[in-house]
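Continued from yesterday's entry.
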Amino acid sequence: MSDSGEQQAAADQAVAAEPATVPRHGRLPKHGAASTYLKLAASVIAVLAVAATSIAAYAAVDLVQSIKPGTELEDEHLLAGVPDIGAMEGGLSFLLVGSDKRPADGSFGDPEEDSAVLNDVTMLLHISQDHSHVEVVSFPRDMIVPVPECPDPVDPESGPLSSMSGVPLNSVLGHGGLGCVVSTISQLTGVPITVAGVVEFNGVAALSEAVGGVEVCLADRVDDDYSGLHLDAGTHSISGYEALAFLRTRHGVGDGSDLGRIASQQAFLASLARTLQSDGTLSDPVKLYSIAKAMLSNMELSNALQNPTTLVSIARTLADVDLSKIAFVQYPTEYSDDRTRVLPAESAEAVNAALQADQPLVIDPTAIDNSEFGTVADPAAPPADGSAEAPPAEASAPPTAPLPGDVTGITGDTVRCAKANEG
């Protein structure tokens, strides 16, 4: 029998099998654990049933084989007994960590000399309880934070790693792994974080390929030899390593700081949200399979995300959220006296309180225009004539206070353009 025939037969057996519950904190299945593979395959096939049978069967087996070892999080027990994100009480908080660890093949410099295990990107995705709004909060890598006690990811039996104070956020991944970054952000914001993942350079490139590319806007030509980004002014559809270069560029945009890079990343993510909703990706099982495979193959995911159906459920939840209710917010900070680090600003408490209360983060749309590290409005967009009326607020929606004016960000329906670093 051919490989595809064997995979089809295995998938057919899985569909006919009694449904079973995958242990929530279980280890990854070892080679030869056929029953666990078949149960996972059955769950994926159920999600992908609207696709052609042969594609769904292949996807099920291929996804299970793509899973990488996971990390158990302190608060992931809150997901117990929940079949999917659509039925979840209390919404979901997902921490995405971007590591600057260099690939072993040397494609981004000597992995021994140029690499460090640093969480240069730390973002919290919060889906509200009723799925009416979504927040993505970016935390500056140089922000000084306290770090709680964390389990030692190398030797868990040796006891917890000591707590720390006054350390840069991007040092936490190397100190205590993904779980420690999660505990640090959870302590900082007061928000339980149930799922998380780490992605490295090649993974970012693969994920951008999986979604079919993202359109970005540049107000000026950007040349950054550090990240490898070289793009003319205007609009470009980027993917793969070009998308990675755009997301990494710091010296080439804004004021050359990580805060300027966050503004560009937010413009990229807003465009990504528009793309995923407009082309039907989030309701297309075959496209969702491609994204899920890229995530499982290229990310270290916490244990609760090891089930591919969870990834699909999260994606489908995002499909119907109004773009104007998807907010990309930079965690508010202020510079230290020597301007080498940043500290949480007083207004950070307003962000924390809204997240804790499951309230939308309402941004002053002019705040980013007044920021030295922000992006700029799309020069090609027609000027607003001021005649459009704001839609009436829903009668059942509670009033939400806007965030202080120093909290910057954009919403998913906003087009912003990266501006070149004049220095």
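--- second protein ---
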Amino acid sequence: MASFSNVVLASMAFMQVVLAGSPKTCSNPTLSCHNTTAVADTCCFNAPGGQLLQTQFWDTSPSTGPSNSWTIHGLWPDHCDGTYDSNCDASRAYTNITAILQSYGKTDLLSYMNAYWVDIDGDNESFWEHEWGKHGTCISTLKPSCYTGYTAQEEVPDFFQKTVDLFKTLDSYTALANAGIVPSSSATYTAAAIQSALKASFGYAVTIQCASGALDEIWYSYDVLGSVQTGTFQPAAPVGQSSSCSSTGIKYLPKSGGSTVTSTSTGTKTSTTPTSTPTGSFSGSGYLNAYTGGSQDGCLISAGTWYTSGTCATYTAAASGSGFTLKSSKGSCGISSGTFTCASGVTATVFTASNGLLAYNGATTFYATAVPSGSTQATVYTSSKSVSVTFQWESI
């Protein structure tokens, strides 16, 4: 797995894309929480909430979200000392977040939020309204006056898209699992071990929170160079925030079950939303869903690589001899130099199926050097590597 810091650096260019509308152009921006004198232009400098926290939940009673993923709590603008403002603009405390996002064509974003930004009581809309009203309205660069040719409520999709984009680079579940910290009904862990695992991935210390002795929140801190909309988020050490966890005996309880989410995009399925067991034989059109440890963990995309944060590729399976061939939009799929590859010029391999799983030379187990996360993709190998993965067909 690539470290969080590497993933963040690799995705900086993506995060600098204007998410909606036309925010003010920022020349020579200043990094928040690093100024020695007051900065007048708070459309290009986040103040007073200069440290932005991407916060995550681990809900188990009741369980929310996929069983192998943390979920989103919010994006909070803290002062550079741990204090914060809240509910900063009652006139923009919108109560129709879903409708606003739909009006800006953010259907894919809404699908993701309904899978990963979920309310413990099942009322996602109210949860989003709360996070926007309490925290979003306090982000200085999201004020309507910070937009050129402002369109009503366009700061809302900027806020939610940015929060989701950050979350996608922060795979807390895998970071902990890589250090042997996994959900358990009986095991306990130390705060130092949890912090060490997360710092190894993120690059900086994070803030952890516990309830009734069980880990249930992680806060990742960033300073921002420029505006929230178009600036660069730089991982940072937390300033002023404190943990509520004890030093030892911390529980990390398992979730019960998992979420089932269907993408609203016609003809596509978002790989980050686990589904029920895929069905259908290898014929016609379908997805190749990846399974590790008995649960779905992404899928194959069109080049034949394994991805957990993108749109699953549609594959076409056609009978051939005693098995079938596979083809994606990139071209025929085959085993080339020990890797699963789909591209023009690739000689199609005749695959078989065993118990509903893709098989090559009779074997259903494929391999990768790590479980992909964020914007990374994993090459799929036929020879043994550190991670084992199987692929099951889902007819569409």
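Residues 1-20, 259-279 have pLDDT under 50 and may be disordered. The radius of gyration is 22 Å. Will compare against the first tomorrow.
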